[in-house]
Amino acid sequence: MSATIIILGLVTGLALASIYVLIAVSFTLVLAASGVFNFAQGTIVMIGTILALVLGVHLDWPILAVTAAICLLGAGAGVLTHLIAVWPVIGRTKSFAHSTMLSTIGLGLAANALAALLFGADSQPVPSYISDSPITIGSIPLRPAYLLMIVAGILLTALIEIVVRKTVLGSIFRVTLEDPEGAQLLGIDTRIVILLAFAVAGAISGIAGFLVAPIISASAFTAQELAIYGFAAMAIGGFGSFAGALIGGAIVGVLTGVLPAVANPQVTLPVLWIVVVGFLVVKPSGLYGTAGLFGSANLREV
Amino acid sequence: MRDLAKAPSYAISYEDAVSRQMAAWTAATKRSRLVNTLLAVGLLAVCGLLPLISQGTYNFARYGVALAYVMAAVGLNLAIGFTGELVLGHAVVMAVGAYSAGMLSAHADFPFALAVLGGVAGGVLAGAIIMLPGLRVRGWYLALITMFAVLVLPRVVVLTEVWTGGEFGLTGIKHPAVLGYSLPDWVIYEVTLLSLALVSLLIANLVRSGWGYRLRAVRDIGVAAAAVGIRPGRVRFTVYLLASVPAALAGALQAFTDGFVNADSFGMSLTLLLLTGVMLGGAGTLWGPFVGMAPLIALSFWIGPFSVFNAIALGAGLLISAVAVPDGFVPLILRWFVRLTHRSAADLRPHVDLAVTRPDDPSIRPPRQFGPEILTARGITKSFGGVHALQGIDISVRRGELIGLIGPNGSGKSTFLNVLSGFLAPDAGTISFRGEDVTAWRVDELARAGIGRTFQVPQLIDQLTTIENIEIGLVGREKGGLAAALLRLPVDLKRSRLRREAALATFRAMRFVPESLGRPVAELSLGFKRIVEIGRAAVSAPTILLLDEPAAGLNDSERQDLGDRLKEIAARGITILVVEHNVPFVLRVCDSLLLLENGQVTCRADLKERLPANLEAYLRHDPTPTPVRAAS
User: Fold this and answer.
1) Any CB–CB contact under 8 A between B322 and chain A?
2) Which of B163, B207, B288, B431 is a good FRET partner for B317, with 20 to 30 A between their CA atoms?
3) How many domains does chain A fold into?
4) In a domain, A135, yes or no
């Protein structure tokens, strides 16, 4: 019995892990292209959960339409973040990284509160977007939604990894990060690259919210926690490395999946905090951390 | 800087001009301190008299909490503003302070004062743990890991509900009493007010002491702080502890003000309130937390602390302040004020002869006898990946020499300088300094032992004046003195005075332009900043100075100035190793040259003797047209 509980916890954990990996990847994309750590990223995930409920359940749109709409709106939210909290800061302050940190924290928290005002403060359960009848594998009943999350998470991460490593777009990201002025001299419009990074990261975060909605429900107050889980995955795995994001996401996911199954659910977050603090103190670069992003030599305030 | 010809002028000696500037600057500083003191005393009096016009337990609770929030913001400002550490965990420090004090009172029957002390101890301990990763990670990593703690707190409170009361809150805190008499509410309010005043006073003392230089050095000049002998990690950790004290004290007092502690009061909204208050008012200014917190607290009084509009306003306030007034309102108000009261600058400017010395003055370039070897490097190698930057460098430097390190781009000059000053560890080889093997020493240890250096981009604290920046060169050698600095004890005042006198002596010896004395270095030219940085390195009388391309980007007259000053420093017995591209400059200034090519020393020559063929060839092929030895 207890083995089953642990295995169920593991599957839940891996499903959550794929979400954390997606969030970590969104953070990394934006940071890589623009040098901004976007604290408002969690808010976009939260918007994804609420849209999953509003569009998919209240308005009863078909699943593909919901997916497309969340992609678009997430991308729009990402672009909006840039326009409101990043673009006005450019060239105005001594420390761009410092100022954008503050402006995105402010934007994120104001947007969370606004969402609470519009959507209500209560969390509302979101029914699963695919059949909820469990698939039994070797006497263990598994929720199909979890399997879908794992598959979707792995596929999306692999896709982004391939794009960033193997394509011209990836090179453009790298050049923009390494040497923004040099990139401009090469004819790259770095503003477009940065906007694109915000849009793609926004879309990924929105989808992450959509995927995770049946597990965590739709609520205006999940944003910070989700962002923190994504950060924990990054910190443990090592910042700027996709392998690290996957491993870190898996560790965080399994911890958050198994711990509530075997112990007091309240223990989860404190334990995770201790693990992350321990990692940062003992090995600040994480398990697979590289000095810079995507193998670049540029270290951004880590 | 020397554009004095147009102003009406009268002759005045250099010494007098400097003394005059020093007196003017000191007077201006005293004036602004007097204004600040009067403002503070006035504010304290107004707040202290508040109980005369406003009564009632509910009101006192609100005022007490407002004061507690300001107090926590004062602590946060010390970390974020003065030290540049973006820590977001002060709400947790406050909570632990409140819970510790509350539990000591409710469960262990501690009297008020002892419970508050226990609360402070608990909060500071929590602060140290929360901010510990700051010793290893920076920037947004630190912001997130400390913000993480804010989300963890409510869980820990629930897990320990036997003691903390869990979700229902901690009750049973005894009302403060003295000798059995229960204290009225207004007394607790006044105690909180006095605590806030005391905390603010101590922090004001701290930031104007040598510690203030340390904090700002860690914030503004990064690695260069170590190069003046400061240990950034130690300073940071000290700040984590110090900045936690006001927050912990605020929490402990709030527990007694409310008679109740609930984790909900110390969540993200409080974090956001403190952060926004500090940033809005002006991080790194003494009045910032007061100016920033006042409107935010007023707003939460008006619409209620738990209103969702409060969170929207705070978030929007933070966003707008980061975008529109990145320095905060206090600096903005000060700038307005200065513009309003600005007097005409067209007063008489004294004519001062700034020339350091005549070029042929024998006292500056005496036929010097150099001392014993003080710095020896043997077989230094360093590779970065496949690039072999240094391939076995052997040099020795005698005391009092002024050596030029020249070589083509990429020959390893800067790398070698970084190895000598401890910023890079060599792959192989040994460095001995004054008879000791210092190969594995840290940057700050080397700096305190007497190896000073400057950087290609001058690393100065922009908001401080020339004389203050020079003083920073001395704080690395000072030991501790934290308590003396906080309390402004005579020993600290004496230390400050000695520091200023030493800086002034260096200022004079290096013939700084008198008008630059009380000016923030942000207003100075690049050439001038380089000289200020050299002054900062020279003020502590190091054994050897390592200068990284000090003449780059300077015009002819600035370069001339710089050369004269280097010779002046060398004449005082300080050895100088200068990395430089400009051939006329090194020929005019140096005693000998080291040619570095492909990571190896290929030539070493005394400039008074005939130059070896390969050095001659290098100097001739240098793009700068150079009549060799024209200057000497």
Assistant:
1) yes
2) B207
3) 1
4) yes
Q: Which residue of A has its CA nearest to B320?
A: A103
pLDDT in tens, chain A (302 residues): 578 888 888 888 899 999 999 998 898 888 877 888 899 999 999 999 999 999 988 888 898 999 999 999 999 999 999 999 999 888 777 778 888 989 999 999 999 999 999 988 888 888 887 777 777 777 777 788 888 888 888 888 888 888 877 888 778 877 777 777 788 888 888 788 889 989 999 999 999 999 988 888 888 888 888 889 999 998 898 877 777 888 899 999 999 988 988 888 899 999 999 999 998 888 888 887 664 444 443 443 33
User: Which ranges of B160-267 would DSSP assign to H, the alpha helix?
Assistant: 161-164, 185-208, 210-220, 223-227, 232-258
- Pairwise CA distance, residues B286 & B148, whole Å: 28
Q: Which two tokens stand for residue B303?
A: 């619409």
The CATH number covering residue A53 comes to 1.10.3470
Q: Yes or no: say if B154 and B161 are a contact pair by the CB < 8 Å rule.
A: no
ipTM exceeds 0.85:
yes
Smallest CA-to-CA distance from B496 within B471, B517, B521 is with B471
Q: Residue B326: which of A84, A92, A269 has the nearest Cβ?
A: A92
Q: Are the C-beta atoms of B507 and B470 separated by less than 8 Å?
A: yes
Query: What band does B624 get if pLDDT is binned at 50, 70 and 90?
Result: very low
Task: Please answer yes or no on whether B311 and A224 come within 8 Å at the CB atom.
Answer: no
Is residue A300 situated within a structural domain? no
The domain of A266 spans 2-295
DSSP state of B501: H
Query: Does B147 lie at the interface with A, CB-CB under 8 angstroms?
Result: yes
Whether residue A301 lies inside any domain: the answer is no
Are A85 and B323 a contacting pair at CB < 8 A?
Answer: yes
> Does B223 reach chain A within 8 Å, measured CB to CB?
no
Give, for B602, the enclosing helix (H) or strand (E): strand B600-606
Domain borders along chain B are 57-266, 373-450+542-621, 461-525
User: Per the CB < 8 Å rule, is B159 touching A267?
Assistant: yes
The verdict on residue A190 lying in a domain is yes
